[in-house]
What does this fold into?
Amino acid sequence: MRVVTVDGGPLGISEVVDVANSDARVVLDPKVAERMAPARQLVEDVVAADRTVYGITTGFGRLATTRIDPEQAAQLQVRLLRSHAAGVGTRLSDRSVRAMLLLRARTLAQGHSGVRFEIVERLIEMLNRDLLPVVPGQGSVGASGDLAPFAHLALPLIGEGVVRVDGVEQDASTALRAAGIEPLTLTAKEGLSLLNGTEGMLALGVISLSESRSLANAADIACALSVEGLLGSAKPFLPQIHQLRPHPGQITSAANIARLVDGSGIVASHAHDLVHAVQDAYSLRCAPQVHGASRDTLNYAAEVFKRELGSVVDNPIVFAEAGAVVSGGNFHGQPLAVVLDFLAIAITELGSISERRTDRILDPDRSSGLPPFLATSPGLNSGYMLSQYTAAALVAENRVLSHPASVESIPTSGLQEDHVSMGWGAARKLQRVILNTANVLAVEIMCAVSAIEHRTPLEPATITEAICALVRRRVEPLVDDRPIGPDIEAIAAMILAGEFDEFIG
It folds into this structure.
Protein backbone atom coordinates (compact mmCIF):
# COMPACT_ATOMS: atom_id res chain seq x y z
CA MET A 1 0.00 0.00 0.00
CA ARG A 2 1.21 3.47 -0.87
CA VAL A 3 2.42 5.66 1.99
CA VAL A 4 1.51 9.36 1.98
CA THR A 5 3.56 11.54 4.32
CA VAL A 6 2.17 14.67 5.93
CA ASP A 7 5.11 16.94 6.60
CA GLY A 8 3.56 20.38 6.18
CA GLY A 9 4.54 20.59 2.53
CA PRO A 10 2.31 20.27 -0.53
CA LEU A 11 0.48 17.06 -1.35
CA GLY A 12 -0.04 15.67 -4.83
CA ILE A 13 -3.43 15.14 -6.43
CA SER A 14 -2.82 11.40 -6.80
CA GLU A 15 -1.87 11.16 -3.11
CA VAL A 16 -5.18 12.69 -2.07
CA VAL A 17 -7.12 10.39 -4.40
CA ASP A 18 -5.32 7.30 -3.12
CA VAL A 19 -6.05 8.22 0.51
CA ALA A 20 -9.69 8.94 -0.35
CA ASN A 21 -9.97 5.50 -1.99
CA SER A 22 -8.25 3.72 0.94
CA ASP A 23 -5.35 2.84 -1.35
CA ALA A 24 -2.80 4.63 0.83
CA ARG A 25 -1.83 4.88 4.48
CA VAL A 26 -0.92 8.25 5.97
CA VAL A 27 2.12 8.85 8.15
CA LEU A 28 3.08 12.00 10.01
CA ASP A 29 6.64 13.26 9.64
CA PRO A 30 8.13 13.59 13.15
CA LYS A 31 9.61 16.96 12.21
CA VAL A 32 6.10 18.41 12.03
CA ALA A 33 6.02 18.89 15.80
CA GLU A 34 9.08 21.13 15.61
CA ARG A 35 7.63 22.98 12.64
CA MET A 36 4.39 23.72 14.49
CA ALA A 37 5.89 24.68 17.85
CA PRO A 38 6.79 28.38 17.24
CA ALA A 39 3.31 29.33 16.08
CA ARG A 40 1.76 27.48 18.99
CA GLN A 41 4.00 29.28 21.44
CA LEU A 42 3.00 32.63 19.97
CA VAL A 43 -0.70 31.83 20.46
CA GLU A 44 -0.07 30.94 24.08
CA ASP A 45 1.87 34.18 24.53
CA VAL A 46 -1.07 36.15 23.06
CA VAL A 47 -3.45 34.59 25.55
CA ALA A 48 -1.08 35.13 28.48
CA ALA A 49 -0.61 38.80 27.53
CA ASP A 50 -4.37 39.28 27.12
CA ARG A 51 -3.88 40.78 23.66
CA THR A 52 -6.91 41.39 21.47
CA VAL A 53 -6.53 38.99 18.55
CA TYR A 54 -9.37 37.76 16.36
CA GLY A 55 -10.53 34.24 17.12
CA ILE A 56 -8.22 33.88 20.10
CA THR A 57 -9.50 36.49 22.51
CA THR A 58 -12.52 37.65 20.48
CA GLY A 59 -15.72 36.21 19.10
CA PHE A 60 -16.20 35.30 15.46
CA GLY A 61 -17.65 36.92 12.35
CA ARG A 62 -19.85 39.89 13.33
CA LEU A 63 -18.89 39.13 16.95
CA ALA A 64 -15.21 39.84 16.24
CA THR A 65 -15.36 42.98 18.38
CA THR A 66 -16.59 41.07 21.43
CA ARG A 67 -13.73 40.47 23.89
CA ILE A 68 -13.31 37.06 25.49
CA ASP A 69 -11.50 36.67 28.80
CA PRO A 70 -8.28 34.62 28.47
CA GLU A 71 -9.57 32.03 30.94
CA GLN A 72 -12.51 31.42 28.57
CA ALA A 73 -10.32 30.87 25.50
CA ALA A 74 -10.57 27.08 25.62
CA GLN A 75 -14.31 27.13 26.28
CA LEU A 76 -14.74 29.46 23.31
CA GLN A 77 -13.21 26.88 20.95
CA VAL A 78 -15.54 24.07 22.03
CA ARG A 79 -18.62 26.25 21.73
CA LEU A 80 -17.46 27.31 18.31
CA LEU A 81 -17.47 23.72 17.05
CA ARG A 82 -20.89 23.05 18.55
CA SER A 83 -22.50 26.19 17.21
CA HIS A 84 -21.11 25.76 13.71
CA ALA A 85 -22.25 22.13 13.34
CA ALA A 86 -25.38 23.28 11.52
CA GLY A 87 -25.12 21.13 8.41
CA VAL A 88 -28.09 19.26 6.95
CA GLY A 89 -28.81 16.93 4.06
CA THR A 90 -27.32 13.77 2.62
CA ARG A 91 -24.10 12.70 4.32
CA LEU A 92 -20.81 12.91 2.48
CA SER A 93 -19.25 9.73 1.17
CA ASP A 94 -16.42 8.05 3.05
CA ARG A 95 -14.10 9.00 0.19
CA SER A 96 -14.86 12.67 0.66
CA VAL A 97 -14.42 12.53 4.43
CA ARG A 98 -11.06 10.77 4.15
CA ALA A 99 -9.82 13.45 1.77
CA MET A 100 -11.05 16.21 4.08
CA LEU A 101 -9.28 14.69 7.10
CA LEU A 102 -6.05 14.44 5.12
CA LEU A 103 -6.18 18.00 3.81
CA ARG A 104 -7.16 19.44 7.18
CA ALA A 105 -4.15 17.71 8.76
CA ARG A 106 -1.86 18.99 6.00
CA THR A 107 -2.96 22.59 6.49
CA LEU A 108 -2.48 22.56 10.25
CA ALA A 109 0.92 20.86 9.88
CA GLN A 110 2.26 23.84 7.93
CA GLY A 111 2.92 25.71 11.16
CA HIS A 112 0.89 28.84 10.47
CA SER A 113 -2.22 27.95 12.46
CA GLY A 114 -0.93 27.90 16.02
CA VAL A 115 -2.53 24.61 17.07
CA ARG A 116 -0.86 21.81 18.97
CA PHE A 117 0.82 18.88 17.26
CA GLU A 118 -1.73 16.58 18.95
CA ILE A 119 -4.52 17.94 16.76
CA VAL A 120 -2.77 16.82 13.57
CA GLU A 121 -1.90 13.48 15.17
CA ARG A 122 -5.52 12.82 16.03
CA LEU A 123 -6.83 13.71 12.56
CA ILE A 124 -4.41 11.24 11.00
CA GLU A 125 -5.16 8.57 13.60
CA MET A 126 -8.87 8.78 12.87
CA LEU A 127 -8.14 8.63 9.15
CA ASN A 128 -5.92 5.56 9.35
CA ARG A 129 -8.30 3.76 11.69
CA ASP A 130 -11.27 4.64 9.46
CA LEU A 131 -13.13 6.40 12.27
CA LEU A 132 -14.86 8.73 9.86
CA PRO A 133 -16.88 11.71 11.05
CA VAL A 134 -20.40 11.91 9.64
CA VAL A 135 -20.60 15.16 7.67
CA PRO A 136 -23.89 16.50 6.25
CA GLY A 137 -23.57 17.68 2.69
CA GLN A 138 -25.29 21.07 2.89
CA GLY A 139 -24.59 24.21 4.88
CA SER A 140 -21.38 25.80 3.58
CA VAL A 141 -21.18 29.07 1.64
CA GLY A 142 -17.46 28.58 1.05
CA ALA A 143 -15.99 31.79 2.42
CA SER A 144 -14.64 31.69 5.99
CA GLY A 145 -13.96 28.14 5.06
CA ASP A 146 -16.38 25.26 4.76
CA LEU A 147 -17.49 26.02 8.31
CA ALA A 148 -20.45 23.72 8.88
CA PRO A 149 -18.92 20.65 7.22
CA PHE A 150 -15.67 21.16 9.13
CA ALA A 151 -17.49 21.56 12.43
CA HIS A 152 -19.06 18.14 11.93
CA LEU A 153 -15.63 16.81 10.89
CA ALA A 154 -13.99 18.20 14.04
CA LEU A 155 -16.54 17.39 16.75
CA PRO A 156 -15.45 13.75 17.08
CA LEU A 157 -11.97 14.94 18.08
CA ILE A 158 -13.49 16.13 21.35
CA GLY A 159 -15.74 13.09 21.72
CA GLU A 160 -18.87 14.69 20.30
CA GLY A 161 -20.80 14.35 17.06
CA VAL A 162 -21.22 11.17 15.03
CA VAL A 163 -18.77 8.86 13.27
CA ARG A 164 -19.16 6.01 10.81
CA VAL A 165 -17.29 2.79 11.58
CA ASP A 166 -17.51 -0.06 9.08
CA GLY A 167 -20.50 1.67 7.51
CA VAL A 168 -22.39 2.00 10.80
CA GLU A 169 -23.08 5.40 12.37
CA GLN A 170 -22.57 5.76 16.12
CA ASP A 171 -21.88 8.42 18.72
CA ALA A 172 -18.30 9.58 18.55
CA SER A 173 -17.87 9.15 22.30
CA THR A 174 -18.84 5.48 22.05
CA ALA A 175 -16.64 4.84 19.02
CA LEU A 176 -13.59 6.56 20.55
CA ARG A 177 -13.98 4.65 23.78
CA ALA A 178 -14.21 1.34 21.90
CA ALA A 179 -11.04 2.29 19.99
CA GLY A 180 -9.21 3.23 23.18
CA ILE A 181 -8.90 6.89 22.17
CA GLU A 182 -9.25 9.73 24.65
CA PRO A 183 -11.12 12.82 23.42
CA LEU A 184 -8.98 15.93 23.05
CA THR A 185 -9.45 19.09 25.10
CA LEU A 186 -9.14 22.08 22.81
CA THR A 187 -7.14 25.16 23.74
CA ALA A 188 -6.93 28.68 22.32
CA LYS A 189 -7.47 29.05 18.53
CA GLU A 190 -7.74 25.30 17.89
CA GLY A 191 -11.46 25.24 17.27
CA LEU A 192 -11.20 28.11 14.82
CA SER A 193 -8.30 26.49 12.95
CA LEU A 194 -10.29 23.28 12.64
CA LEU A 195 -13.00 25.22 10.80
CA ASN A 196 -11.27 27.78 8.61
CA GLY A 197 -10.06 26.92 5.11
CA THR A 198 -10.95 25.65 1.66
CA GLU A 199 -9.99 22.01 2.10
CA GLY A 200 -13.61 20.83 1.99
CA MET A 201 -14.36 22.05 -1.50
CA LEU A 202 -10.79 21.17 -2.48
CA ALA A 203 -11.26 17.57 -1.31
CA LEU A 204 -14.43 17.20 -3.36
CA GLY A 205 -12.76 18.91 -6.31
CA VAL A 206 -9.70 16.67 -6.33
CA ILE A 207 -11.83 13.52 -6.27
CA SER A 208 -14.05 14.95 -9.00
CA LEU A 209 -11.02 15.80 -11.13
CA SER A 210 -9.84 12.19 -10.98
CA GLU A 211 -13.26 10.95 -12.09
CA SER A 212 -13.44 13.64 -14.77
CA ARG A 213 -10.23 12.38 -16.35
CA SER A 214 -11.84 8.96 -16.66
CA LEU A 215 -14.89 10.60 -18.24
CA ALA A 216 -12.68 12.36 -20.80
CA ASN A 217 -11.07 9.03 -21.67
CA ALA A 218 -14.45 7.34 -21.90
CA ALA A 219 -15.71 10.12 -24.19
CA ASP A 220 -12.87 9.50 -26.65
CA ILE A 221 -13.56 5.77 -26.49
CA ALA A 222 -17.30 6.25 -26.98
CA CYS A 223 -16.67 8.44 -30.01
CA ALA A 224 -14.30 5.89 -31.55
CA LEU A 225 -16.91 3.17 -31.10
CA SER A 226 -19.56 5.41 -32.66
CA VAL A 227 -17.31 6.22 -35.62
CA GLU A 228 -17.17 2.51 -36.37
CA GLY A 229 -20.83 1.88 -35.60
CA LEU A 230 -21.96 4.75 -37.86
CA LEU A 231 -19.51 3.99 -40.68
CA GLY A 232 -17.77 7.27 -39.97
CA SER A 233 -14.48 8.53 -41.35
CA ALA A 234 -11.13 8.51 -39.56
CA LYS A 235 -9.82 11.44 -41.61
CA PRO A 236 -10.96 14.18 -39.18
CA PHE A 237 -8.54 12.74 -36.62
CA LEU A 238 -5.41 13.04 -38.76
CA PRO A 239 -2.67 14.73 -36.70
CA GLN A 240 -1.79 17.31 -39.37
CA ILE A 241 -5.26 18.83 -38.99
CA HIS A 242 -4.82 19.40 -35.28
CA GLN A 243 -1.28 20.70 -35.51
CA LEU A 244 -2.80 23.67 -37.32
CA ARG A 245 -4.85 24.50 -34.22
CA PRO A 246 -2.58 23.20 -31.49
CA HIS A 247 -4.73 23.18 -28.38
CA PRO A 248 -3.20 20.42 -26.22
CA GLY A 249 -6.49 18.73 -25.35
CA GLN A 250 -7.65 18.72 -28.95
CA ILE A 251 -4.41 17.10 -30.08
CA THR A 252 -4.72 14.48 -27.33
CA SER A 253 -8.33 13.56 -28.11
CA ALA A 254 -7.69 13.37 -31.86
CA ALA A 255 -4.69 11.10 -31.27
CA ASN A 256 -6.72 8.91 -28.93
CA ILE A 257 -9.57 8.42 -31.39
CA ALA A 258 -7.21 7.86 -34.33
CA ARG A 259 -5.31 5.23 -32.37
CA LEU A 260 -8.50 3.49 -31.24
CA VAL A 261 -9.86 3.05 -34.79
CA ASP A 262 -6.49 2.35 -36.39
CA GLY A 263 -6.69 -0.81 -38.51
CA SER A 264 -10.48 -0.94 -38.40
CA GLY A 265 -11.96 -3.08 -41.13
CA ILE A 266 -15.24 -1.25 -40.70
CA VAL A 267 -13.66 2.17 -41.33
CA ALA A 268 -11.57 0.83 -44.23
CA SER A 269 -14.66 -0.60 -45.92
CA HIS A 270 -15.91 2.84 -46.94
CA ALA A 271 -12.77 4.99 -46.75
CA HIS A 272 -13.06 6.04 -50.40
CA ASP A 273 -16.84 5.90 -50.75
CA LEU A 274 -17.96 9.44 -51.64
CA VAL A 275 -21.55 8.27 -51.90
CA HIS A 276 -21.49 7.20 -48.28
CA ALA A 277 -20.46 10.52 -46.75
CA VAL A 278 -18.38 13.48 -47.80
CA GLN A 279 -18.48 14.84 -44.27
CA ASP A 280 -19.60 13.31 -41.00
CA ALA A 281 -21.84 15.15 -38.56
CA TYR A 282 -20.21 17.56 -36.13
CA SER A 283 -20.71 15.20 -33.18
CA LEU A 284 -18.24 12.83 -34.88
CA ARG A 285 -16.04 15.14 -36.91
CA CYS A 286 -15.62 17.83 -34.24
CA ALA A 287 -15.24 15.49 -31.28
CA PRO A 288 -11.53 16.33 -30.77
CA GLN A 289 -12.31 20.02 -30.62
CA VAL A 290 -15.12 19.54 -28.08
CA HIS A 291 -13.51 16.79 -26.01
CA GLY A 292 -10.20 18.63 -26.18
CA ALA A 293 -11.65 21.84 -24.75
CA SER A 294 -12.90 19.82 -21.79
CA ARG A 295 -9.48 18.18 -21.39
CA ASP A 296 -7.81 21.60 -21.33
CA THR A 297 -10.23 22.66 -18.61
CA LEU A 298 -9.28 19.63 -16.54
CA ASN A 299 -5.62 20.52 -16.89
CA TYR A 300 -6.29 24.08 -15.80
CA ALA A 301 -8.22 22.83 -12.76
CA ALA A 302 -5.32 20.53 -11.88
CA GLU A 303 -2.95 23.51 -11.79
CA VAL A 304 -5.26 25.44 -9.46
CA PHE A 305 -5.71 22.41 -7.21
CA LYS A 306 -1.95 21.84 -7.06
CA ARG A 307 -1.42 25.41 -5.85
CA GLU A 308 -4.15 25.02 -3.26
CA LEU A 309 -2.63 21.75 -2.03
CA GLY A 310 0.41 23.73 -0.90
CA SER A 311 -1.32 26.85 0.37
CA VAL A 312 -1.99 28.32 3.82
CA VAL A 313 -5.76 28.88 4.00
CA ASP A 314 -6.30 29.39 7.74
CA ASN A 315 -7.32 32.63 9.44
CA PRO A 316 -5.91 34.36 11.33
CA ILE A 317 -2.47 33.33 10.09
CA VAL A 318 0.33 33.01 12.63
CA PHE A 319 3.70 34.43 11.54
CA ALA A 320 5.85 33.12 14.37
CA GLU A 321 9.13 34.71 13.25
CA ALA A 322 7.51 38.16 13.09
CA GLY A 323 5.60 37.63 16.31
CA ALA A 324 2.37 38.51 14.48
CA VAL A 325 -1.10 37.00 14.17
CA VAL A 326 -2.72 38.53 11.11
CA SER A 327 -6.32 38.31 9.93
CA GLY A 328 -6.61 37.96 6.16
CA GLY A 329 -8.76 36.29 3.54
CA ASN A 330 -6.97 33.15 2.36
CA PHE A 331 -9.96 31.10 3.52
CA HIS A 332 -12.12 32.55 0.72
CA GLY A 333 -13.03 29.86 -1.79
CA GLN A 334 -13.40 31.96 -4.93
CA PRO A 335 -10.29 30.58 -6.73
CA LEU A 336 -11.74 27.09 -6.33
CA ALA A 337 -15.40 28.01 -6.83
CA VAL A 338 -14.81 29.45 -10.29
CA VAL A 339 -12.78 26.40 -11.34
CA LEU A 340 -15.36 23.97 -9.98
CA ASP A 341 -18.04 25.74 -12.00
CA PHE A 342 -15.77 25.61 -15.05
CA LEU A 343 -15.35 21.86 -14.58
CA ALA A 344 -19.12 21.36 -14.44
CA ILE A 345 -19.47 23.15 -17.79
CA ALA A 346 -16.65 21.11 -19.34
CA ILE A 347 -18.08 17.78 -18.19
CA THR A 348 -21.59 18.76 -19.25
CA GLU A 349 -20.27 19.28 -22.79
CA LEU A 350 -18.82 15.76 -22.90
CA GLY A 351 -22.31 14.44 -22.21
CA SER A 352 -24.02 16.87 -24.58
CA ILE A 353 -22.06 15.78 -27.66
CA SER A 354 -22.26 12.12 -26.61
CA GLU A 355 -26.06 12.20 -26.55
CA ARG A 356 -26.06 13.53 -30.12
CA ARG A 357 -23.98 10.57 -31.30
CA THR A 358 -26.29 8.14 -29.50
CA ASP A 359 -29.33 9.69 -31.16
CA ARG A 360 -27.69 9.27 -34.57
CA ILE A 361 -26.97 5.58 -33.91
CA LEU A 362 -30.59 4.92 -32.96
CA ASP A 363 -32.28 6.95 -35.72
CA PRO A 364 -32.91 4.69 -38.75
CA ASP A 365 -32.73 7.70 -41.11
CA ARG A 366 -29.22 8.73 -40.02
CA SER A 367 -27.52 5.52 -38.89
CA SER A 368 -26.22 4.24 -42.24
CA GLY A 369 -28.42 1.18 -42.31
CA LEU A 370 -28.62 0.11 -38.68
CA PRO A 371 -31.94 -1.36 -37.46
CA PRO A 372 -34.30 1.21 -35.93
CA PHE A 373 -33.17 1.74 -32.32
CA LEU A 374 -30.93 -1.33 -32.74
CA ALA A 375 -33.98 -3.49 -32.08
CA THR A 376 -34.50 -7.05 -33.21
CA SER A 377 -38.01 -7.27 -34.70
CA PRO A 378 -38.55 -3.47 -34.56
CA GLY A 379 -42.10 -2.68 -33.54
CA LEU A 380 -42.47 -5.76 -31.42
CA ASN A 381 -39.26 -4.66 -29.70
CA SER A 382 -38.28 -1.05 -28.96
CA GLY A 383 -34.59 -1.84 -28.55
CA TYR A 384 -32.53 1.00 -27.09
CA MET A 385 -35.08 3.70 -27.90
CA LEU A 386 -35.55 4.79 -24.29
CA SER A 387 -31.86 4.90 -23.54
CA GLN A 388 -31.68 8.09 -25.61
CA TYR A 389 -34.53 9.53 -23.53
CA THR A 390 -32.46 8.85 -20.43
CA ALA A 391 -29.40 10.50 -21.95
CA ALA A 392 -31.46 13.51 -23.02
CA ALA A 393 -32.93 13.90 -19.53
CA LEU A 394 -29.49 13.77 -17.92
CA VAL A 395 -28.02 16.26 -20.38
CA ALA A 396 -30.90 18.64 -19.67
CA GLU A 397 -30.32 18.29 -15.94
CA ASN A 398 -26.61 18.96 -16.40
CA ARG A 399 -27.34 22.15 -18.27
CA VAL A 400 -29.26 23.45 -15.26
CA LEU A 401 -26.46 22.33 -12.92
CA SER A 402 -23.92 24.16 -15.08
CA HIS A 403 -25.27 27.51 -13.95
CA PRO A 404 -22.34 28.89 -11.91
CA ALA A 405 -22.64 28.84 -8.14
CA SER A 406 -19.68 31.20 -7.84
CA VAL A 407 -21.74 34.23 -8.91
CA GLU A 408 -24.47 33.59 -6.33
CA SER A 409 -23.01 35.22 -3.21
CA ILE A 410 -25.42 35.66 -0.29
CA PRO A 411 -24.03 37.74 2.62
CA THR A 412 -23.73 36.11 6.05
CA SER A 413 -22.85 36.97 9.64
CA GLY A 414 -24.61 40.32 9.79
CA LEU A 415 -22.84 41.60 6.64
CA GLN A 416 -19.40 41.01 8.13
CA GLU A 417 -19.02 38.24 5.56
CA ASP A 418 -20.61 40.21 2.73
CA HIS A 419 -19.19 38.26 -0.20
CA VAL A 420 -18.96 34.48 -0.17
CA SER A 421 -17.80 32.03 -2.84
CA MET A 422 -20.44 29.28 -2.79
CA GLY A 423 -17.56 26.98 -3.73
CA TRP A 424 -18.95 24.12 -1.65
CA GLY A 425 -22.18 24.22 -3.65
CA ALA A 426 -20.15 24.31 -6.86
CA ALA A 427 -18.27 21.19 -5.74
CA ARG A 428 -21.46 19.33 -4.81
CA LYS A 429 -23.26 20.02 -8.06
CA LEU A 430 -20.12 19.03 -9.97
CA GLN A 431 -20.44 15.60 -8.38
CA ARG A 432 -23.97 15.29 -9.77
CA VAL A 433 -22.82 16.42 -13.23
CA ILE A 434 -20.09 13.76 -13.20
CA LEU A 435 -22.49 10.95 -12.30
CA ASN A 436 -25.02 12.11 -14.89
CA THR A 437 -22.34 12.30 -17.58
CA ALA A 438 -21.02 8.84 -16.73
CA ASN A 439 -24.50 7.50 -17.42
CA VAL A 440 -24.80 9.48 -20.67
CA LEU A 441 -21.48 8.11 -21.91
CA ALA A 442 -22.54 4.64 -20.79
CA VAL A 443 -25.60 4.90 -23.03
CA GLU A 444 -23.42 5.77 -26.02
CA ILE A 445 -20.95 2.99 -25.33
CA MET A 446 -23.78 0.47 -24.90
CA CYS A 447 -25.42 1.49 -28.18
CA ALA A 448 -22.16 1.84 -30.12
CA VAL A 449 -21.02 -1.67 -29.13
CA SER A 450 -24.31 -3.04 -30.40
CA ALA A 451 -23.96 -1.01 -33.61
CA ILE A 452 -20.49 -2.47 -34.22
CA GLU A 453 -21.87 -5.96 -33.75
CA HIS A 454 -24.50 -5.20 -36.40
CA ARG A 455 -21.66 -4.45 -38.86
CA THR A 456 -20.51 -8.09 -38.86
CA PRO A 457 -18.78 -9.55 -40.88
CA LEU A 458 -16.83 -6.27 -41.05
CA GLU A 459 -14.27 -6.27 -38.25
CA PRO A 460 -13.57 -3.43 -35.83
CA ALA A 461 -10.12 -2.24 -34.86
CA THR A 462 -8.11 -4.39 -32.46
CA ILE A 463 -8.52 -1.97 -29.55
CA THR A 464 -12.22 -1.28 -30.06
CA GLU A 465 -12.80 -5.03 -30.34
CA ALA A 466 -11.17 -5.44 -26.92
CA ILE A 467 -13.37 -2.67 -25.53
CA CYS A 468 -16.47 -4.38 -26.89
CA ALA A 469 -15.36 -7.62 -25.26
CA LEU A 470 -14.92 -5.85 -21.91
CA VAL A 471 -18.42 -4.41 -22.12
CA ARG A 472 -19.88 -7.77 -23.05
CA ARG A 473 -18.39 -9.32 -19.93
CA ARG A 474 -20.71 -7.06 -17.92
CA VAL A 475 -23.67 -6.45 -20.24
CA GLU A 476 -25.30 -9.05 -22.47
CA PRO A 477 -26.45 -8.22 -26.01
CA LEU A 478 -30.03 -7.00 -26.29
CA VAL A 479 -32.01 -9.67 -28.12
CA ASP A 480 -35.53 -9.18 -26.84
CA ASP A 481 -36.54 -6.13 -24.82
CA ARG A 482 -35.59 -6.05 -21.15
CA PRO A 483 -35.05 -3.31 -18.57
CA ILE A 484 -31.80 -1.63 -19.64
CA GLY A 485 -31.32 0.75 -16.71
CA PRO A 486 -29.05 -1.76 -14.91
CA ASP A 487 -26.96 -2.13 -18.09
CA ILE A 488 -26.44 1.63 -18.27
CA GLU A 489 -25.47 1.85 -14.62
CA ALA A 490 -23.08 -1.09 -14.90
CA ILE A 491 -21.15 0.60 -17.72
CA ALA A 492 -21.24 3.94 -15.87
CA ALA A 493 -19.67 2.25 -12.84
CA MET A 494 -16.93 0.86 -15.09
CA ILE A 495 -16.25 4.37 -16.40
CA LEU A 496 -16.00 5.94 -12.94
CA ALA A 497 -13.81 3.08 -11.70
CA GLY A 498 -11.36 3.84 -14.51
CA GLU A 499 -11.77 0.47 -16.22
CA PHE A 500 -11.63 2.04 -19.69
CA ASP A 501 -8.56 4.16 -18.92
CA GLU A 502 -6.21 1.33 -19.84
CA PHE A 503 -7.25 1.67 -23.50
CA ILE A 504 -6.02 5.27 -23.68
CA GLY A 505 -2.32 5.47 -24.44
Remarks:
- The mean pLDDT is 94.
- DSSP finds 19 helices and nine strands in the chain.
